[in-house]
Each structure stands twice: as structure tokens, then as C-alpha cells.
Specification:
heterodimer; A: mainly beta; 7-stranded mixed beta sheet; 11 strands; 0% helix; B: mainly beta; 6-stranded mixed beta sheet
Chain lengths: 112, 112
């Protein structure tokens, strides 16, 4: 089915481990975004990408790494997970012609 | 710093009544305005967007934009229990047209 998917949907990891969250979209949207959502903070932008091989930091990039070698994929890596990175992570995308973003189902990450 | 403000609620409305959700924004150059609905444990879903001053209607939903006063509102007519959710306001900034600036959301409860 067309759309935007995220995997895994749920992840429990230990402090210090590396973990990668995957995001895949089938719309060929140019822009892709990673957000985290925590109680009391709303949606906060971690990283975004305007096209393959073009990425930039958002509001809260520390501790995260992204890459985008293909238009359809935008993985987010936590290089050394910390408890403060326990959150729900959403991937979103949009095309060049409009500003509305479409979200994936989210990944609930728990760092113990 | 560009901001989008929403009353966090909860806003409690009787079934069948009109629910009114409000949002103010600080960037006078903003051009595009969005309302997303987020059910508990789910991802944000786009329900309305508006670009011009005035009203825009879609079924039971009406978005209202007043750029002079820098506010955007969402009216939900004939409110149903299924409308109970958190409503997020998002605005694109003139100086940041690659991303949306998000409000923290208003929790709406429709009481049967």
C-alpha cells in the first residue's frame, strides 16, 4: 500500500546501545522529517531532509544521526541511547508543492 | 522565536454542540495554516488547511483565519464522541518554509 511506514513500531533498548528507526514512503515526496513527541513538549523536530543526500538539523538534533541515500528512506539512528531519548518518534513527509505533512504511525521507543 | 500557542485544555463539549478550538501565531509572514487531529496512541492526521483570510468549510469542520489578528480557529459542528482527540495547530513560517511550527495541542472531550 502507498503511504509512509515506520519500523519497528515498538522498541525497548538499553542505555548506550545503538538503535535505528526506519522510515519509508512511497509517494516520492522530496521532504522528510523526524519528530519526537513527549508529554508537555508537543512535536519537536529532530532532523529533516529536503532531498536525497540533503539533511539538516531541527530543534533537538543532539544524540541523533540521519542519512538519506534514497528518496524513499530516511532512517534515524540513536548512536548511544540515553533514557532521555525515551519517546514516541514520528516520521513525516511532504512534496514540493505544498506544506502539509503526512505522518507515519510512529515508533514507541523505551530506553532502560 | 516563532511560536504557535494553543490552550492545552481539556475542552469539554456536549455531544451535538459546536466545539471551538483556537490558535495564535507570532510570525506575521506565515502563509499556510493546518489543523491536525491526533487520537491517543496514534499519529497526527491532517484534517484542514487554510491559506486565505476567512472561512473554509469541509463537512462538519470549519477553519477560520484572521491574519491581521494572527489567529486561526477550528469549529466542529454537531460534535460527536469520535471527535474526542487532541487537535494540533501548525503554521509554516515565512522564514522557515521547509518546516511547520507546531502548537502543543488542545485536548477535546465530547461528552455524550
Amino acid at each position: 500500500d502507498a503511504g509512509i511506514t515506520q519500523s519497528p513500531r515498538y522498541k525497548i533498548t538499553e542505555t548506550g546501545r545503538q538503535v535505528t528507526l526506519m522510515c519509508h514512503q512511497t509517494w516520492s515526496h522530496s521532504y522528510m522529517f523526524w519528530y519526537r513527541q513527549d508529554l508537555g513538549h508537543g512535536l519537536r523536530l529532530i532532523y529533516y531532509s529536503a532531498a536525497a543526500d540533503i539533511t539538516d538539523k531541527g530543534e533537538v538534533p543532539d544524540g541523533y544521526v540521519v542519512s538519506r541515500s534514497k528518496t524513499e528512506n530516511f532512517p534515524l539512528t540513536l548512536e548511544s541511547a540515553t533514557r532521555s531519548q525515551t519517546s514516541v518518534y514520528f516520521c513525516a513527509s511532504r512534496d514540493n508543492r505544498s506544506y502539509e505533512q503526512y505522518f507515519g504511525p510512529g515508533t514507541r521507543l523505551t530506553v532502560t | 522565536q516563532k511560536e504557535v500557542e494553543q490552550n492545552s485544555g481539556p475542552l469539554s463539549v456536549p455531544e451535538g454542540a459546536i466545539a471551538s478550538l483556537n490558535c495564535t501565531y507570532s510570525d506575521r509572514g506565515s502563509q499556510s495554516f493546518f489543523w491536525y487531529r491526533q487520537y491517543s496512541g496514534k499519529s497526527p492526521e491532517l484534517i484542514m488547511f487554510i491559506y486565505s483570510n476567512g472561512d473554509k468549510e469541509d463537512g462538519r469542520f470549519t477553519a477560520q483565519l484572521n491574519k491581521a489578528s494572527q489567529y486561526v480557529s477550528l469549529l466542529i459542528r454537531d460534535s460527536q464522541p469520535s471527535d474526542s482527540a487532541t487537535y494540533l495547530c501548525a503554521v509554516n513560517g515565512w522564514s522557515s518554509n521547509y518546516q511547520l511550527i507546531w502548537g502543543a495541542g488542545t485536548k477535546l472531550i465530547i461528552k455524550p
